[in-house]
Amino acid sequence: YGLPKYMQIAIDQMRTLTFVEWERMVENIEVPLDESEGFYRNLFDASWSRFTENLKTIMMSVTYFVEECSPEALRKTSGLSERQFTNALVFASDAYIESTGTGYTMHPLTHTFCRAVLNSDRNAEFHQQSSLRFVEYFSFFARTARESNQSDRLENEIRNIIAAARLAEGLREWRHLVG
User: Fold this and answer.
1) Which of 16, 68, 71, 90 has the largest count of CB atoms under 10 Å?
2) Residue of 137, 114, 140 lying closest to 59 (CA atoms)
């Protein structure tokens, strides 16, 4: 982690900006370079403003997951249709959402930024709905894996199942905890 992520974001930004425009944008970032998290947040904020709403939705949704998330779980949590989900990811750079081949993950600094956006007042309704979708997805996942004796599937997703159970408790969605 560290400087390479800054470089990935800079390269991605230069796809749509001229070098002079990009340089001007970076010069306007008021946080000193030695304050890496603040600099990263401001650099990332410049990219965030160019993302589609669907890509922002996906990126906020990634923050529910512990480590990697499957495409199906991420799409269900986001609430997007398959078409919206696929179209948004076509334009997503690995600088922001990293494809692992079997799922998606994101850099810890990107995760922190997206989680802060998710927790903001302007996203309160989406946060409530996506939280419930995450809980419902893993409640159903755990129940069907258990009923079909697929302990390997449960083991592979145990950290996300636990995260969903904790979130269900916080939401007071007891029906998802007892089954």
Assistant:
1) 68
2) 114
Residuewise pLDDT in 10s, the chain (179 residues): 445 655 566 556 556 666 666 566 666 655 555 555 666 666 677 778 888 999 999 999 999 999 899 999 999 999 999 999 999 998 777 778 888 989 999 988 888 889 999 999 999 999 999 999 999 999 999 999 989 999 898 899 999 999 998 898 888 776 665 55
Q: Please tell me the pTM assigned to this model.
A: 0.78
Q: Is the dihedral of CA 60, 62, 66, 67 positive or negative?
A: negative
Q: Which two tokens stand for residue 70?
A: 């499957």
**Sequence-ordered list of residues with C-beta below 8 angstroms from that of 96, at least 6 positions apart, any chain:** 9, 12, 47, 59, 106, 110
- Candidates 82, 7, 79, 89; CA nearest to 40 is 7
Please state whether 79 falls in left (phi above 0), alpha (psi between -120 and 50) or beta. Answer: left
The number of helix segments (H) and strand segments (E) in the chain equals 10, 2
Residue 58 has phi, psi (to 5 degrees) of: -65, -45
